[in-house]
Queue: 2 jobs
Job 1
Amino acid sequence: MSIETIKYSKRNRKHIIEKIDSDVTASHWRNWKWQIKHCIRDLDTFQKLLGIELPENIQEDFKKTTSKFPMSITPYYLSLVDTDNLLNDPVFKQSFPSPSELIVTRSEMSDPLHEDKDSPVPGITHRYPDRVLFLVSNMCSMYCRHCTRKRQVGDIDSIPDKEQIKKGIEYIRNTPRIRDVLLSGGDPFLLSDEKLDWILSELRSIEHLEIIRIGTRTPVVLPFRITDDLVSILKKYHPVWINTHFNHPRELTSSSRNALAKLADAGIPLGNQSVLLAGVNDCPRIMRSLVHKLAYSRVRPYYLYQCDLSKGLAHFRTPVGKGIEIIESLIGHTSGFCVPTYVIDAPGGGGKIPVMPHYLISWSTNKVILRNYEGVITTYKEPDSYEPTFCDRDCDRCDLQLVLNDAAEYRAVGIERLLADYNEDVALVPENNSRHRRRS
Ligand SMILES: *Cc1c(COP(=O)(O)O)cnc(C)c1O
């Protein structure tokens, strides 16, 4: 079986446990609260637990970087560090502060995705018509060095208190077009079971809310958080979907697979959102191994994100071409559901924009020319005659048997609107287009 567990985790685990406290047992290790209590936040502990001594310059850099962006690593995640090849280790790179984080380039912003600007009430980002992002926690057990919300890590002002969460829930309750809420943070699973239970039950009481989604990295950095108690709470509020955040095949250990299995067994559809990171996973072979291991654990690769323009992430960014190359290496070469959608989350709040290799090479009025993943160039002959159903949104008189109760409310937007029969617009023009201003 090629799906194997990494081998050094046990060795490291033993060393780390002994050094934290020789009385610690395996059941302490598997206790998520014990893990959080023993998160590694300073350099001495980091070196002591791994039995290494870092060069002087790295120690100096550490102080400077952590004065701005603190470190936190769970003992479990630390145990995945490969000390034999430390500086190239993907676990180390995602968790250990780098002085490059202090370099801010001209194109970077503190809130590139305008999550704060698109926010009707604190904690909610309402960008898309039918779904919202709801930040319910600003706590994380491991501080990912590539975090897009670094501006909030350890920021006491952005802890969402119960009042703020109540206001968020009220906003969703009062906005009937929201059918999907995405709980994120921080990590929602760092909340207590009681608090999560409360948030989920409040949300489930909202009639128009169809699905509840949770974004969490605990299966990766704190798999012991996925307890039987937590799973039985989640199960009460179906349909609940979970997206997690594995970036490298090394992160799929027996503990993390166990956590994923519990969630999948509870009927929770699992997805994964990876970030394309230079020196971590910017390699078609690594990504292929990752998506295979995910699918084997019943996790569907959902998105591959181009690293966004948050401040201090320049050293993690790749050209967009690297992402396209990775997608090119997956489509056709492996199971269709192993291929994530590669997206750029557009600066300024434009949302996620998919980018793909091109498969449509050319077309005429009756034929399209395509190429496949092997480079074969082929044709598809279009129908000789096609009577499109004219659509004026009068669904009651339509020949197509479409059951759509709220059809009248449905208005096409964007490119979809340009394509619609009933719409007479010929172009979408930015509001302040100067050529158009001159005309009027
Ligand atoms: C990513 C995101 C969503 C969810 O987008 P999907 O494409 O449906 O996964 C919703 N709101 C905001 C603000 C987001 O960034």
Job 2
Amino acid sequence: MSGTEWAARPDSRKHLLLTETADVFRDVVGEGVRHVAARVGEAVRPTTGPDPDELRAEIASIDLDRPLSDSAEALAELDDIYLRDAVYFHHPRYLAHLVPPVAIPALLGEAVLSALNSSLDTWDQSTGAMLIEQRLIRWITRRAGFGESSSGIFTSGGTQSNLQALMLARDTALARRAPTPGERWRVLPKLRVLASEQAHFSVVKSARTLGLGDSAVVRVSTDSRYRMRPDALEQAVFRCYAEGAVPIAVVATAGTTDFGAIDPLPALAEACRRHQLWLHVDAAYGGGLLVSARRERLAGIENADSVAVDFHKSYFQPVSCAALLVADEASLRHVAYYADYLNPEDSGVPNLVDKSLQTSRRADAVKLWLTLRVLGAEGIGALFDEAVDLAHATWRLLRADERFTVLAEPELSTVVFRWVGGYGMTDQECDAANQHAYSALFDSGAAMIAKTKIDRRVCLKFTLLNPNTTLQDIAAVLDLVAGHCANHLVLADAEPLLPEVS
Ligand SMILES: *Cc1c(COP(=O)(O)O)cnc(C)c1O
């Protein structure tokens, strides 16, 4: 290649973080942080309620093969297509999903870990970051009541934690029951995982991914507060045996997505011990109790074989930050695979890739580390407890409000309710009104709430994680919901008249 051809190339190098561009990095990212801070500071509602078609067209019109001149221009464009209409989870009237406002020390961690770009697969890429992760795993396994032989690994979230846990359960069972490959293929379709009707859908997805199939997940019924019934579990195990199926694991949920219900861990642990089943506790949401004043609600978790915790839910961390904990480090051998080019078995140094489903992996632990060093465990737990307190106050408010029915008393920080304010309405009309209120609220941007179905009926849901949300916010949003529902009734009544008018 000639010298002129070299010269004709764009000078991309100035956009890489290199020795001589360290100050460019500081200026560009510094400007970006100032911009985001301004957006966050001025957000007067959780979202603008953007129209997906409009936004899609705007994004589609951008020519990705024709770059802008610099990062400042790119940020301005990003502001148009993303920041302006984004959902601002820190807003006190964002009440929809399990996404918290994020801890500022964790954001500092994000800046550090992505600039350094440590990848936690091997010791020679991560050094201190890897030891930080392992120290945090030790810290959280102690809080869970696990013993000396426990271990764990940071994951991308509850979905990955559940998948890996069920993989360990599957391979532990197969190692015991079907030592040869031929036997494994014969046994595989018979394996069953028991989980409550309220368990997270990632349990079924995991079974699918692991070659067990959707129907390998046996749904166990729940009590009036949506917790797994131990007697129903017992019956389900015996039904498996009667059908010639092989139950291998129970997934207990500690904090279901809808109700925050915590399955009775001591009774389930006892059943698992008797039937030699792997007990996985999906505490993706309820794991926050490990640092809260309500720690006793997780009593029995110390008897689990594995636990999923999402720090990006109840520990106020930005996505992703989560972990899978295991009671017995040896069980992690089922994910280990040794490659000469990466992690030879005789490397003599610890390589976390041996414990993870991922290879390249972010140093997400750094975020939790900085948060703990600044807030302390109790500081994090107190924030979560505030959300749980608010959920209780909200539940009492709803109980006293004739416009609504409220479902189970909250165990964590969600409240499920339904508007029933109209006279002589059918269930279907009620469904439609609640559905309408949910969408109308999003479109207006005034508040965001969630929607679910309980016993086939449309219900609305508050998921509370923001200590800035007050009971006055809740009351105001309930008035908005009631207004939209009543409006919908008026509109629905008016509709049959429309053809006559036209
Ligand atoms: C959120 C959640 C999950 C999924 O976790 P991700 O981090 O979104 O992958 C699994 N189980 C429960 C109970 C959850 O609340």
